[in-house]
């Protein structure tokens, strides 16, 4: 059995071929797709976060809205760029959204992906400490955020407050119990996966790893997961971690599917460069359900993960994206033992 959800990059474009031509379209359709996914029996609705782009950005208003409109589905991010975040304000936003959803938030955070602008986090008022870089700053922000989610008091109360204070040091409110164990780190390397385990965060791994050893993507990712789990065990954490991988999977069950994704049926891994370093990209899975079942059964990383996030082409609209989810859940997942 696997948790199966969708991951939306939240693109919009004024193109006449796009079903999302504005930010409003993307936000409202993101809510509608989560509702549809829950009705189909999917387990998660996850959203990317990018700044200075025609994509979803500040996630908490959307997460809260999805939480208010659904009742069972997990709601998450993949991922929030922690270079841009005030961990104190973020802890309040996350607590509020989690309480609205009844404890269904699953927050993926990370250093973030290559940006649309040069050092965009500086426009948000943040800059790395002397001798550090953006990655160091993201990890520092994350450590503060995780500490705040523990819910321990740290602030000295005003002796003459507007409202009476409870005894002792004060914490941020609203606090959502249990959210600390539902934070995931988007790891792009095997070493970062080990760091993630040491911090007591769940592992979120995507269709891109920012390293390449020459082996197929799914094998490299499976090694990353294995290292994460070993480190987690060595650290002796008190709860069982979760691991997610994301994949582009498109069952071809009608002519529309064939028109959109028929040419992807021969897709393979790709090797490229990101931020000056070598990276390996996972392939797109597209084909008839029988062919997908055969191919996906060989994916070692999917087998090792408990959660699978399906990247969806959000610009094709809610109806088509729901169709893709339904096709995977109906024609593929049961035969692989995921359902």
Automatic annotation (TrEMBL):
Top-level division of the source organism's lineage: Bacteria
Domain Luciferase-like: 9-256
InterPro entries referenced in this protein's UniProt entry, alphabetically: Bact_Lucif_Oxidored (IPR050766), Luciferase-like_dom (IPR011251), Luciferase-like_sf (IPR036661)
A GO-annotated cellular component: cytosol
Gene3D superfamilies reported in the protein's UniProt record: Luciferase-like domain
Tagged with keyword Oxidoreductase: yes
Keyword Lipid metabolism: no
Keywords tagged on the record: Monooxygenase, Oxidoreductase
A GO molecular-function descriptor: oxidoreductase activity, acting on paired donors, with incorporation or reduction of molecular oxygen
Record's protein name: Monooxygenase
């Amino acid at each position: 059995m696997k948790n199966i959800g969708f991951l939306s990059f939240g693109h919009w474009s004024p193109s006449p071929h796009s079903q999302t031509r504005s930010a409003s379209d993307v936000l409202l359709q993101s809510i509608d797709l989560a509702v549809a996914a829950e009705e189909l029996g999917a387990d998660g609705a996850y959203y990317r976060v990018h700044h200075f782009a025609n994509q979803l950005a500040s996630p908490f208003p959307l997460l809260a809205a999805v939480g208010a409109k659904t009742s069972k589905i997990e709601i998450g991010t993949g991922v929030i760029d922690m270079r841009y975040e005030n961990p104190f304000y973020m802890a309040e936003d996350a607590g509020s959204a989690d309480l609205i959803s009844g404890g269904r938030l699953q927050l993926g955070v990370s250093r973030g992906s290559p940006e649309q602008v040069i050092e965009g986090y500086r426009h948000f008022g943040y800059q790395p400490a002397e001798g550090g870089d953006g990655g160091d700053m993201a990890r520092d922000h994350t450590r503060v955020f995780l500490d705040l989610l523990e819910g321990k008091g740290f602030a000295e109360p005003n002796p003459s407050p507007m409202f009476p204070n409870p005894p002792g040091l004060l914490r941020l409110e609203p606090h959502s119990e249990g959210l600390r164990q539902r934070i995931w780190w988007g790891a792009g390397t095997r070493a970062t996966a080990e760091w993630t385990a040491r911090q007591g965060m769940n592992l979120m791994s995507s269709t891109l790893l920012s390293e390449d050893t020459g082996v197929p993507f799914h094998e490299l990712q499976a090694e990353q997961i294995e290292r994460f789990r070993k480190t987690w065990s060595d650290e002796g954490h008190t709860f069982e971690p979760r691991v997610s991988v994301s994949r582009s999977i498109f069952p071809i069950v009608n002519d529309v599917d064939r028109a959109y994704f028929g040419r992807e049926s021969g897709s393979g891994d790709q090797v490229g460069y990101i931020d000056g370093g070598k990276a390996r990209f996972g392939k797109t899975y597209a084909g008839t359900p029988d062919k997908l079942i055969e191919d996906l059964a060989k994916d070692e990383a999917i087998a090792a993960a408990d959660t699978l996030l399906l990247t969806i082409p959000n610009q094709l609209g809610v109806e088509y994206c729901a169709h893709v989810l339904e096709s995977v859940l109906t024609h593929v997942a049961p035969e692989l033992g995921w359902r």
